[in-house]
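Model it.
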Amino acid sequence: MPILGIGVDILHLPRLISLLSRRGSEAFATRILSFQELRTFQLLAEQHGEDETKRIAQFLGVRWAVKEAAYKALYPIRPTWKEVTYLSFNGTTGVKPTLVYRPVRNDVGPANKLHVSVSHDGDYVYAQVIAEST
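Modeled.
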């Protein structure tokens, strides 16, 4: 299983919070999230509202960092934001974080499996993605 690429990204949450305060979290979410992620975001926003800016920013920040890392790992393949879906750790089933790449085009190349690791502490989110071919 050859490794096609490794990508990393780090995000400073206060920078994202500043952006969200100017442009709105809904517009940002609509731009970068896949359909499945957007639905989860909408449930989170309904549950917490804009009062939980930090929680919403962390949700969006994790996905931003993961997708940036995936973009770097997959290069020269150029996925769109919506073709990559991040599924976080599921405490009920014990399933670890997963990254799914669903390309719209069929001519995108040999990336069959993506491995993802995310860490967030305080004001920072770090993501690493490894792309491999099976």
